[in-house]
Amino acid sequence: MAVQSETELYLPVKSFLERLGYEVKSEVHGCDIVAFRGESREPVIVELKKTFNLPLLFQGIDRLKLSDQVYLAVEQTRAKKGAQNQRWNDIRKLCRMLGLGLITVTFYKTKRPVVEVQCDPEPYVPRKLNRLTARLAHEFNERSGDYNVGGSTRRKLVTAYRERALECAHLIKTHGPLSPRKLREMTGNTHVGGILQKNVYRWFIRLQRGIYGLTPLGEQALQTYADVIEAMFSES
């Protein structure tokens, strides 16, 4: 069920902290929840919101000036639909990156709310994946130019693979049906055979053994990416 106000989160979160041995008070110098445990001089601060949003993030970041132990608390509904319910992994990752903790409260009709700590506030040290970095660099270096517009969704991206396929399609269109061997000689690309045989975009058709032509989709692609082909072959 969806809560009507963040105040509904207060008692479940307060009770949860008290069970952990904290003394809890609300609305202290603008903080929704402030909690101390034992002799610790470092408070736990919790900011409450019905849903996870930017104002809550900004609030949490601001509270880091007061304590390193800052949590954001929101409702977690049991519904599988909804953008937030499908992005909890991303939300946790974002909180960790900002050094914030995340608490969720799930409400039920016939039993007490369940409070869960999704992540604790801690310094975020991103771990670079060298394999992914290498893939990124390879794709960058394999592209002959910059034929995309950042943020565009109207046309499929011109990747290095699409460039190579367009090069084959253009040469077949210009010179007529060709063999993989002839295309390798013309392009210097040793992967031509795989491009034609896998035919990922369905641009090519095998006319006879070792000879390939263009499909209507291939003809259409040459028109769609005419600017790319012009740039590629004007540079060669």
What does this structure look like?
There is one protein chain. By secondary structure, the chain is an alpha/beta fold. Helix content is 41%, strand content 19%. The strands form two sheets. It has a six-stranded mixed beta sheet with strand order 1-2-3-4-5-6, with helices on both faces. Helix 5 packs across helix 8.
Helix-residue proportion: 40-55%
The Rg value, from CA coordinates, equals 29 Å
Number of helices: 9
Mean residue pLDDT:
90
Q: What spatial form do the alpha-carbon principal axes imply?
A: elongated
How far the N terminus sits from the C terminus, by CA atoms, comes to: 63 Å
Q: Give the strand content.
A: 15-25%
- Could you give the count of β-strands? 8
Q: What structural category do the secondary elements indicate?
A: alpha/beta
H and E string: HEEEHEHEEHHHHEEHH
Sketch the major β-sheet: 6 strands, mixed
Order of strands in the sheet with most strands:
1-2-3-4-5-6
Poorly predicted ranges: none
Short description:
The chain is of the alpha/beta class.
Summary keywords:
single chain; 236 residues; alpha/beta; two-stranded antiparallel sheet; 9 helices; elongated
Note the topology:
Elements: H1 7-19, E1 23-28, E2 31-36, E3 44-48, H2 54-63, E4 69-75, H3 88-98, E5 101-106, E6 114-119, H4 130-142, H5 160-175, H6 180-187, H7 192-198, E7 204-208, E8 211-214, H8 216-224, H9 226-235
Parallel strand pairs: 3-4, 4-5
Antiparallel strand pairs: 1-2, 2-3, 5-6, 7-8
